[in-house]
Structure formats: C-alpha cells, structure tokens
Amino acid sequence: MPEAADAIRTMRVRGAAAIACLGATTLGHHVAGLAGGLPAVHAGARRAAGILFATRPTAVSLRNGLGAVLAPVLAATDADAARAEAPVAANAFVAAVDASGQAIAEHGSSLLAAGGAVLTHCHSTTVIDVLRRAQARGADLHVYATETRPFRQGLVTVRALHDGGVPCTLIVDSAVSHVLETKAIRWVLVGADTVAADGTLFNKVGTAGVCALAQRRGVPVHSAAGFYKFTRQPPGAIPIEERAPSEVVPDSDVPPGVAVFNPVFDRTAPGLLTSYITEAGPRTPGEAVRQALGRLPASEALA
Ligand code: RUB
C-alpha cells in the first residue's frame, strides 16, 4: 500500500483514470489482507483509503474508486465477507473505468469524424483513445498538443499519438492563442480530473485559459469525462492541489525570498464548455451532471 501511495503522490502513476484504478486495486488488495474482526477491518480500510486519497486531493475519480471499494467493505456484516468483497469491488470498478473509456472513444470519434485540427492540453488517456480511434476510423486529424509545464505531460501525449498513427505537433503552452489564431483549430478536446456538481471542470492547470481563448474564437470545447469523475460536491469544496516549487524550477535558480507558486489544476466554468463527452454521448455540462449524479451512490463512502 505505501508503494502505491508513493507512486501516485510522486506522479510515477498519474492521470485520473490510472490513479483511480491503482487506488481501488491497492485498497482491495490491502483490505483482503487485513487481520482481525470487523471493527479492525473497517478501521484498517478507512485508514488506507484516507492515505491513498490524500495523495492527489483534487481527483474525485480517485475518491470514487476508493469509495467503490470502501462502501461494500463498510456494509459487510462479518470480517471475512468484507475481506472477500474488497478485491471483487476493485475489479468491478476497474472494469467500469475501462468500459467508460471504450464508450467515450466511440462517441468522441464520431464527433471528430469530419477530421481537422484539434488542440489538446496535458495528457489524458481518455482523450488519446478518442483521437486514436477517430484517426483509425478515417478522420484526417492533426493534433496540436501543449507541452504542459511544469511536468511536461505533453510529451507523453505526442508519443501516444505518434504510436497510434495520429499526426501531431508539440507546442509550448504560451503558443495556444497563436495556434488557435493560425492553425484552423476545429475543436479543443481536453480530459477531466474532476467535474463538480455545477458542471465546473477541474483539469490540468492551464485548461481554463485554453478554453477561454477557444470560446473567444468560437472554437467548440469538449472534455472527455467518464461518469466516475463527477461528484455531488460544489466546486468550492474541491481543493486545488499545489505541488513543490522544485517541479517548476530548481531552488538555486530563484533569488532568495522569491516565491514559486505551483498549482497543478484549475477550474473551468461550465459556460466555457460545449460538452462533456460521456459514456452516454456528448452532453451539455448540465445534462452530464444530471446523468452522472443519477448513477453515483447516494452517499460517498469517503465523505
Ligand atoms: C492529468 C490531467 C488529465 C486528467 C484526465 O493531470 O489533468 O487531463 O487526469 O486524464 P496529472 P485521464 O498529470 O497531474 O495527473 O483521461 O487519463 O483520466
């Protein structure tokens, strides 16, 4: 369990889908190995879920993945049933995330079927699957991918697109406005870390600026977001993770006394989004929230 928590915290494993699945399977395995009676299993499960969730506090997918395992464990009436149920619930969650990605790739690739230039930000496995499937189905795409400072997830994006036969170009983050102006961008397509109850998108820092610039130019903005990324929480209740200044710049490069602020997500207002591409198809933010919340468990086990 500590190894998985460390892998998520240090971003060796990153992206909402991947950390949610690793969190759920790690918790499932951990609970299966807990000794003692029901109170000990419940306490151990809660403790481990808390440690895992604290690794990436903005990610509701991680919270929902852990909740999917914790809920049946806390509902179990004997310790053996709780231990048995945990890995089963984890596997079911991973299967649901996988099915969600497949369905979104299907809907998203239909949306992009006409081909053209797409701008994306950061690295989202869900977005990559949409783009690769669209290209494989014959859409003639060209993807502009931001480098995504400071962690440079854009490099992962262009490698994955290149491997999937999708023509792409890497740009620095500050080129977004110029690229929107000069490269006939037809769509902006980004991932989703978390979607709040009012439809606000939480995604890699910079997403809000990309979306605002796109809206000013009349370019539609879509976010590929499975229902497991939605939450009943209002946007103000979701913290924006801040990471070490050393991820931005070595300490020795900054004059003493100068602060470096490194928020790694930002909030995009639902009014800037054309749709969330969900398992059910592209939906306006309001409709996506309604559908997603109808599928979430009534109480969130980690609440
Ligand atoms: C990654 C990020 C991605 C979403 C969606 O941030 O913001 O757009 O997590 O990814 P980080 P996916 O690199 O800080 O984890 O579609 O793979 O769930």
Secondary-structure topology with pairs:
Layout (H helix, E strand, L loop, with lengths): L1 H8 L6 H17 L5 H16 L6 H16 L3 H33 L4 E5 L4 H12 L4 E6 L6 H11 L4 E4 L4 H7 L2 E6 L3 E2 L5 E4 L2 H10 L4 E4 L40 E4 L6 E4 L2 E3 L1 H11 L8
Parallel strand pairs: 1-2, 1-4, 2-3, 4-7, 7-9
Antiparallel strand pairs: 5-6, 6-8, 9-10
Bound molecules: ribulose-1,5-diphosphate.
Could you describe the 3D structure shown?
The protein is an alpha/beta fold and 303 residues long. Helix content is 47%, strand content 14%. It is built from ten helices and ten strands. A seven-stranded mixed beta sheet has the order 3-2-1-4-7-9-10, sandwiched between helices. β2 (141-146), α7 (153-163) and β3 (168-171) form a beta-alpha-beta unit. The radius of gyration is 20 Å and the shape is globular. The model has no long low-confidence stretch (mean pLDDT 96). Bound molecules: ribulose-1,5-diphosphate. Ribulose-1,5-diphosphate (RUB) is lined by residues 14-17, 122, 124-126, 151, 153, 191-193, 203-204, 264.
Q: How would you spell out the order of helices and strands?
A: HHHHHEHEHEHEEEHEEEEH
Beta strand count: 10
- Average per-residue pLDDT, rounded, comes to 96
Uncertain runs = none
- Percent of residues in β-strands: 5-15%
Q: What global shape is seen?
A: globular
User: How would you write the strand order of the largest sheet?
Assistant: 3-2-1-4-7-9-10
How would you sum up the major sheet?
7 strands, mixed
Structural class: alpha/beta
Radius of gyration: 20 Å
